[in-house]
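Dear support,

Our group has been running a series of protein-ligand predictions, and this particular one with calcium ion is the one our PI (initials K.S.) wants archived with full inputs and outputs. We had some confusion internally about which version of the output was final, so please treat the block below as the authoritative record. The input we submitted was:
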Amino acid sequence: MADRQKIIIDTDPGQDDAVAMLLAFGSPELEILGITAVAGNVPLKLTEKNARKICELAGKPETKVFAGAIRPLVRDPVSAEEVHGKTGLDGPDLPEPTMKLQEQYAVDFIVETIMSEKFGTVTLCPLGPLTNIALALIREPKIAKRIRQIVLMGGGFFEGGNVTPAAEFNIFVDPQAADLVFRSGIPIVMMPLDVTHKALTKASRVEKFRKLGTRVGNATADMLEFFELFDERKYGSDGGPLHDPCVIAYLLKPELFSGRECNVAIETGSELTMGMTVIDWWGVTKRPKNALVMHDIDHDGFFDLLVERLGRL
Ligand code: BDR
Ligand code: CA
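Confirmed final output from the archive:
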């Protein structure tokens, strides 16, 4: 097999983060160097614990999990218990993890890893607010040139926002961090709501996870059945958007997605549109292209990939 892609998953689990982690664990093309937790959907104490629960569910207790930023760079913390439940991972009944949290600070781990791995080989996969990534760039700006790419879930344009009319949760929670990351010069692939709102956890798809007849399959079905409730009420759809696994799916099968290179700028000035990702889709400015912004997804292919890979765990 060709060299495995080295990745760091930066995450705030979250049921959809959890499914993204499971997809990565089920995929031998990927080498997970570490999982770094950040405050987001729920506070850090819970996101780091949830990350460990998912490692154990996947049968990968040897995975290194680190805790990072406890709050956004500038703004007050915002969480999303109304979507993810009190624990952040409501739905399945998962045991308390027994594997240890690493002592090293997640931001130091990110910096050290990128500085010590071969130039241009590490991909960052942020699935939550970009606080840890921004802090790493502040701590050691040299990492920017050494990172292969950032593939992230965040933002929205044609679909608007999901926490305000203008802003998507991950960018809204820490717009200053997002601004720094989008100005960093690192190649960015962005999975906005425009993509993830097309990847719906329809009942027939959830059933396929349950039919796997495994712990992972049942826990995934339980997670999705809880997680989709909020969005089904909001959008009146069959199923809710499965956001974060799009990031990992892109690494495995980029042909499932299509989009275009654009300039993306982050609103950090106006309260009304705070955290908006202003995407120059039509190229009406001369601002440099700084991200490959995805717009479409082969959603059947995406769910087939998920079921197949989770079925390996
Ligand atoms: C994003 O926000 C979180 O609630 C999800 O985990 C996802 O990363 C979607 O806006
Ligand atoms: Ca997330």
